[in-house]
Every structure is written in structure tokens, then in C-alpha cells.
Amino acid sequence: MDILSRKSSIGLLTVLAVILVAINAMVAYRSVAVLEHSQSWVQHTYQVIAQVEIIMGSEKDAETGERGFLITGDPRFLEPYSNAERDLPAELDAFQQLTSDNASQQSRLAQLRSHLVVRNQLLEHAINLRRGGSSMAQAALAVTEQGKAEMDILRRIGKEMQSEEYRLLTDRLVQARRADIRTRITVAVATILDLILLVIMSRYLYRERELRYKTELQATELREANERIIASTAEIHELNETLELRVKQRTSELEATNRELEAFSYSVSHDLRAPLRTVDGFSLALEEDYAEAVDAVGKDYIRRIRAGVQRMGQLIDALLQLSRITRAEVETSEFDLSALADSVASTLVQENPGRQIDFRIEPGLTATGDPRLIRVALENLFGNSVKFTSRLPSALIEFGRDPAQNAYFVRDNGAGFDMAYADRLFSAFHRLHGDKDFKGSGIGLATVSRIIHRHHGKIWAYSEVDRGATFFFSLE
Fold it and tell me: Do 137 and 130 form a contact (C-beta atoms < 8 A)?
């Protein structure tokens, strides 16, 4: 197939080369034709100018002959006049034919003919008077003076004709010069393109030869590679068989490790809770039974001990919840996310009866995921919003979907946080607010992040200090 393709490419390239050369030749021929056409118009303009000069020269000859005859009475002076009268019609017809494409010149020619008729009549009348004798010479000269006005008009028309043609000559000389430049450029470009085409053809043929050598070398290498592949097929089959066995072994080991981690988590929870309950119980007894024997400082210490024990218990519960969520099976289904959010919000409102909390939940939202885990995520997100708006007289918490972000969001008007520390939000035990400001375990957002990641989604946040916070999350 490659050989046939290369042969087809060579044939196609040859055809394209012939077409390109033909196009270059046609363009060059057209440029030369345009140049010849421009030059022919220049020559034509010169002819028109010369014809105007011939016409005006004939008029001058007629006037000169007529004046000589009027002054001397010698009929020999009438020869230029007679020749001019004989030649003028043909000269005017020649000018009309040369300027048939120029309406303005045709109009001037018509004026010229009419004034020539008047002028010739005056000349003929003056000549006839002079032929009457020398006594009529003065009258003949007077008629000649009347014809001078007509001659001035004829000269003006002649100058207008020449001016028009000189203007056309200037334009046509410019066009001819441009056509000459274009022709030179076209021929040069066509020559360069032909040379480039020859170079390309030469390079292509050279590359074809090199490619043929490389193809033969690659064919040899492919044969050797096929032999090596056949030789290693048995080894690959053996590796595939052992790989399946290794996967089963690793899966069994992971399951055993998970069971050990679960047992360890339960053991840690049980073993830690026993001494904590002891510390809590004895500190309670100390607080109740020996309240009178302990001063105010001692009572404060006892309260701190009990608070620390209770916080430790909360941390253990949070860690166990995070561990269970990490190992829990994700049972995916489509559910009413708005109804789930309403349920979580109602519970939080009931748990905070002394506060004014306004939950605004977008209706009609649905999602695909594990509703149990999503409920835990919403409990943590809504709970954070309730907590961080606790210092406000009225809390506003919104839940909905943002089409621009293609994600769900939880927005509040609470304390917010500095975005410079946003990378620490979803790590366990990393808190952006101290216990003196807002109580917490530092596990909630880490739990939310684990749940969202288990749904193959993403979670992120935007906030400003004292301007509230918005948490976005997406589900696959």
C-alpha cells in the first residue's frame, strides 16, 4: 500500500507541477498582453495628439494663404488654402474615428466642425471680395477680421482637445508603466515558482529514494522484531498467569489489613474510653463531693479537666466516624437532595432553639450517590455554617446548585476565613479558628472531603474574613 501510495503521490505531484507551470505561463502571457494593450493606448493617444496638430496646421495654412491673397491679390497664395480645404474633411473624419470611444472629444469635434463651417464661409467670402478688384481689398480684410474671432474659438477647441489627450496620455503612461512593472514582477515570480517547483520535485524524488532505502531497512528490522515477539510470547503468557495470582494475593492481604485496622480502631476506641470515663467520673466526684474543700482555682482546674476529657471523647468519636466513612461501602442511587437538605436543616434548627437561623434551600435538586454519606456531609457543612454564624443576630444559610461552577454550594454570612489558609481546610485537626472563638474537633471538613472524594467529586471553598464562606462540591 505504501508503494502504491508513493507512486500515486509522484503522479499527482507531476500533474500539479504541469498545472502550476501552465498557470504561470498563462499569467505571464496575460501580463504581457495587458502591457501591450497599455502601450497600444499610449501610441493611440500620440496619434490623436498628432491628428489635432494636423487639423490646426491645416487651418493655419488656410488662414495664411487667404491673408497672402488678400494682401497681394496673387492667386498663388491660395494654394495652401485650397489644399487645406481639400484635406480638412478627411483629417476631421480621421480624428472622429480615433476618438470614437471618447464622448467629450466627439462633442468638441462637433463644435469644431460647426465653427469650421462658419470660418470657411468667412474665408471664402473674403476671397471672393478680393477677386472683385483691389478696391475691394479693404472690405475683404474687414471680413477677415471677423473670421479672427472664429479662428480664436477654433484654437481654443484645439487646445482643449490636446489638453484632454495629454491628460489621457499621462494616465495611460502611468498605466503602461504599472503594467510593465507588473509584467516584470509576474515573469520574475513565475520563474522563481518554476525554479522552486524544480527544487521541490528534486527533493521529493531524493526523499523517495531515501525512503525506499529506509523502508527496506525497516522491513528487515520488523522481521527481526517479529521473531523476538514470537520468542517472548510464552514468557508473556506466563507473566499474565502469575499476575492474576498476585492480584488475588494482594486483594486478600488488603482485606486482612482492613479487618485489622477496623479491629484496631475499635480496640483504640474501647481502650481509650475506659480511662477517660475513669478520669471523668473521679473529676465529677471530686467536683461534687469536695466542692467546699477546694477553692475557686481548684474548681477551675477540675472544670478544665472535665472539659478536656469530654473533648478527647469527641475527638475519638470523630476519628471513628472518619474511619468508618473511609471503609464504608458506597451504595449509589438517585435521591431527592433538596428533601435531604431540608431534613438536616430542620434538625439543626431544633437543636438551636434560641437562635434565628434562616435556611434557604433550592427545591427540586436531585443527586446520584449514597444518601447516608451525603447526609453526613451536609450535617457537617450545615453544622459549620450554624457554628460560624453564632455571633450574628440572624444567620442566613443557603443551599443550591451553581450552573456556572457546575456544583452544589453551601453559603453562609458568618465569620469566614482567610483564603491564604484555604489549603488546610480539609485536613484532619487543621482549624482556622481557635477554641476560644468557635468550638470544634477539626474533623468535620476532613470527613466531608473523604465523602466527596469517595463519590469521585471535588470540594473547594471561597471566603472573606467577616464576609461569610461558600463551599462548593460536585458529585460524579
Answer: yes
C-alpha span between 302 and 314 (Å, rounded): 18
Q: Do 390 and 438 touch, CB atoms closer than 8 A?
A: yes
- pLDDT per residue over 29-39, tens digit each? 777 777 787 77
Helices (H) and strands (E) in the chain, counts: 8, 7
- Three-class SS of 122-176: HHHHHHHHHHCCHHHHHHHHHHHHHHHHHHHHHHHHHHHHHHHHHHHHHHHHHHH
H/E stretch holding 324 reads: helix 296-327
Among residues 384, 398, 392, which one has the least CA distance to residue 442? Answer: 384
Q: What residues does 360 pair with on adjacent strands?
A: 398
Average pLDDT score over residue span 118-139: 63
Residues paired with residue 408 on neighbouring β-strands, in sequence order: 401, 473
CB 83 within 8 A of CB 63: no
pLDDT digits (tens, 9 = 90+) for 26-76: 877 777 777 787 778 888 788 788 878 887 777 777 777 766 766 666 777
Strands 407-412, 395-402: pairing kind: antiparallel
Q: What φ, ψ does residue 99 adopt, rounded to 5°?
A: -110, 30
- The three-state secondary structure class of 414 is coil
pLDDT in tens, 240-270: 777 777 777 776 766 666 556 555 555 665 5
CB 448 within 8 A of CB 460: no
Spatial separation of the C-alpha atoms in residues 398 and 381, rounded to whole Å: 11
Residue from 2, 105, 4, 89 nearest 47 by CA: 105
CA distance 17 to 52: 53
